[in-house]
Design brief:
Elements (H helix, E strand, L loop, with lengths): L6 E6 L9 H15 L4 E9 L14 E7 H11 L4 H5 L4 E4 L11 E5 L3 H4 L6 H17 L2 E4 L2 H9 L7 E3 L11 H10 L6 E5 L8 H10 L6 E5 L10 H4 L9 E5 L3 H10 L2 E4 L8 H8 L4 E4 L12 E4 L4 H13 L1 H16 L3 H15 L2
Parallel strand pairs: 1-2, 1-4, 2-3, 4-5, 5-6, 6-7, 8-9, 8-11, 9-10, 11-12, 12-13
Helix pairs in contact: 1-14, 2-5, 7-10, 8-12, 11-13
Length: 373
């Protein structure tokens, strides 16, 4: 049980119920799991009304107090009406932590996590309603947030440019669980997905910012035989996977294998079995697939000019994501140069180990203490 000095903190947990939860839900749940074990914090979740339980993998680890309004209506009420307050569902709290830009109404000190502001720069990547809700959330953050926690230096710079003072910003990187996968498990998962040959792995939701178009163009141009491309993740925007580009790839040289969504344990095995993981995103708030690959000792090719470049260290290569020739060359160099691949792979686990959820939780609790009255 928390001691008498423990801060009672309400965390928004609605991301666990979204149709495609993504990194926001992962980050909120992983943080909550550490806070539950922290004797200085008493976490309680808060969310809108939901008819079903959250998926087991993303189920909040603490009690969640539910408002009567469903998630979409609750977000609108918070942003435009300033009610219902979090405390109406949770009772008194010392701090409220919004784990996304959906910013709750509260009288308590408010900490908000911002992973990215992509909706400001590329609104066409989102639904019209999604853009309106996130813009309203950002307006609320400007007015009411005591501290804003940013997942990367790139995000912090973007938030500052959006009009939030730097003295309210704290960079709080996210983490990764390092759990190497046994070789026999890797082989089993590879066979299940018909990945008998060496393969390049891409992981994410099929959406424009993930730059599948650029990756397919790069693979169509490279001069490597017998290495396949595995695309792992749920469908999203159909135009994010242009079939005319996939059709340009010679299947005798490179097969394109799509797996759809896979459970976390299978994804770890697929990272472990890959020759290289490629995340050529046009923009990211953090970049979980980079660290997930590193945790399995797999090199990465990713993008310059985004938050993922901050993660690479000596374990990968960062290139301009809109240059398919540069992307193809980076992939080819890792696939064909055994010495380079070995050096990058050797550095990968140590790079992943720099990013832990315990550190994320520590920095977050420091923010709570900073604002608590």
């Amino acid at each position: 049980m928390p001691d008498t000095l423990a801060l009672r903190v309400a965390l928004t947990m609605d991301a666990s119920w979204t149709p495609v939860p993504g990194g926001t839900a992962v980050a909120a749940v992983q943080l909550a799991r550490r806070l539950v074990d922290d004797p200085t914090v008493e976490p309680i979740g808060v969310a809108g009304a939901h008819r079903t339980e959250a998926p087991e993998e993303l189920r909040p680890p603490m009690h969640v107090a539910h408002h009567r309004l469903p998630r979409p209506l609750l977000a609108d009420a918070w942003h435009h009406l300033g009610r219902p307050r979090v405390e109406r569902a949770t009772g008194p709290v010392d701090v409220v932590h919004a784990t996304s830009v959906i910013t709750p109404a509260t009288r308590a000190p408010l900490v908000v996590t911002v992973h990215d502001l992509l909706f400001l720069h590329e609104p066409d990547w989102f639904t019209g309603r999604g853009v309106r809700v996130m813009r309203a959330g950002l307006d609320a953050i400007r007015r009411r947030a005591d501290l804003v926690l940013c997942s990367s230096r790139a995000t912090a710079a973007d938030v500052a440019a959006a009009g939030i003072e730097e003295d309210r910003l704290r960079v709080v990187p996210l983490g990764v669980d390092v759990s190497p996968v046994a070789a026999e498990r890797v082989e089993d998962v590879r066979r299940r997905h018909d990945l008998e040959r060496p393969y390049v792995l891409w992981n994410g939701t099929f959406e424009p910012r993930k730059n599948l178009r650029g990756l397919l163009e790069a693979i169509a141009r490279w001069d490597v035989d017998g290495v396949d491309l595995a695309l792992v993740g749920p469908s999203g925007w159909r135009e994010a996977y242009p079939p005319e580009l996939a059709d340009r790839i010679d299947p005798d040289r490179t097969r394109v294998v799509t797996t759809g969504f896979v459970p976390r344990a299978e994804l770890e095995a697929l990272h472990a079995g890959a020759v290289v993981t490629c995340l050529p995103s046009l923009a990211e708030g953090f970049g979980f697939p980079v660290l997930e690959a590193f945790a399995q000792g797999t090199p990465v090719v990713t993008s310059t000019g985004t938050s993922t470049e901050e993660l690479v260290g000596d374990a990968g290569i960062a290139v301009e994501p809109t240059d398919p020739d540069a992307l193809a060359e980076a992939l080819r160099s890792i696939v064909t140069d055994d010495g380079l691949r070995s050096r990058l792979a050797s550095a990968a686990p140590a790079q992943a180990a720099r990013y832990t959820w315990d550190r994320t939780a520590q920095l977050t609790v420091e923010a709570y203490r900073e604002v608590a009255r």
